[in-house]
Records
---
Amino acid sequence: MKWQDQYSVNHPLMDQQHKQLFEILNQLEGHILKEEALDYFLETLEQLSDFAWEHFKAEETILEELKIEGLQDHMDKHQSFKKKIMAMTQSFFKQPDLKQVEEAYSFLSHWLVDHILEEDMKYKM
Ligand SMILES: [Fe+2]
Ligand SMILES: [Fe+2]
């Protein structure tokens, strides 16, 4: 995943956190390419969920302060992302395999880009 200027919401902290999320997913991609993803997947998911939680909380506070419309809807999307990560963690625990990791990477990377472009852009300054 490569960061592009069009992903910027013109908010330094939010851009920085979004870049950090890219970084975590790039790490995951690196593990897949080096065929060591099975060893690192749970660790990466934990890191991603911890950081995503922190980011969502900060972002929701900003949305509230700016009185951006559709806050609840945006929060619901964050919530379903959290649930998705939990479901991925559980299913990997039950049956760890590489296909799951690759599908997870594909889902997470698309989700992040789509979410930034479709939802987060609504608070772009
Ligand atoms: Fe968001
Ligand atoms: Fe965001």
---
Amino acid sequence: MVHTRRIDLFIVKKCCNRCIFCSERNNLDGSELSFEKIKNILVAERSKGANLVHFVGGEPTLHSHFPEILKLSKALHYNTFIISNAIMFSSYEFCIKTLPYLDEIMISIHGHNNKIHSINTRNPAAFKSVFQGMKNLKKYYKGRLQATTAITSLNYKFLTNIAELIHNFGINEYQCMSIVPTGEGSRKFYEIFPKFSVLSPHVIKAINFCESKNIKIRFSGIPMCILGDRYQYSYDLWEPFKIDNQKDHNGKIRLWNEPGKYIENNFKIDIGRIKTRKCKKCSKNSICGGVYEKYFLKYSDAELVPFK
Ligand code: SF4
């Protein structure tokens, strides 16, 4: 098995959307890392064994030297990965300059129609662009293509519809994620993230649909017990989990280093998840990432049902 060492490299702090749940909002000052700095980091990390680079933003494709950065990372034999709002891929010229150098792209899509995607992204032009972007990617892109949706009170009933939309564009890997309670996601968490008891039937419906279409679906930031007997669709199981990451913290167990994530230079999407007293009785305790503390503080652990 080839060992992967990944770095998450923040290259740009700007975005053309203003998502209502943006976890990076506090950091988006419009700046970008210089090409020289990026080059130095890529060279240094490669010599230390890194072989996968995740270019992070903001919106990474907005870096003014994005095509050059991709060419350099390929010349250094990195595998390259981005999460993108796909707006730049609505341009044929941009696709031609960048797609040959990208190994994995995860498209952010937060609604199955213009209204919901536009409200979630606070960008009235976003849906038209992401639609054209997916069309271009279907036509011109040969790498691994995935999609992701941040679950909000506006779209949770339509996860199946979003899965169907991406499937029509040939995308067969789909990640649905909880709102991450940092930045705007923290300020608006209770306003925009549905309660698990309300969300759960729609999660199961989306899983059933994806199974029928052979779409690989997974859920991040959601406790395994909320997925019930479909817990194998938890993102927590997608990367190796280390039980010694757990540390007792005021009667709760906190994950200091999340499953499969690296300590340095890495993007920790699961930060802030905790285990409650109920989890101590749960047979999945060692493989589940727990519940966001932000969620627990308002709603407690009443909806958690420990596995026997
Ligand atoms: S009870 Fe706790 S450990 Fe068990 S699945 Fe639910 S959140 Fe995870």
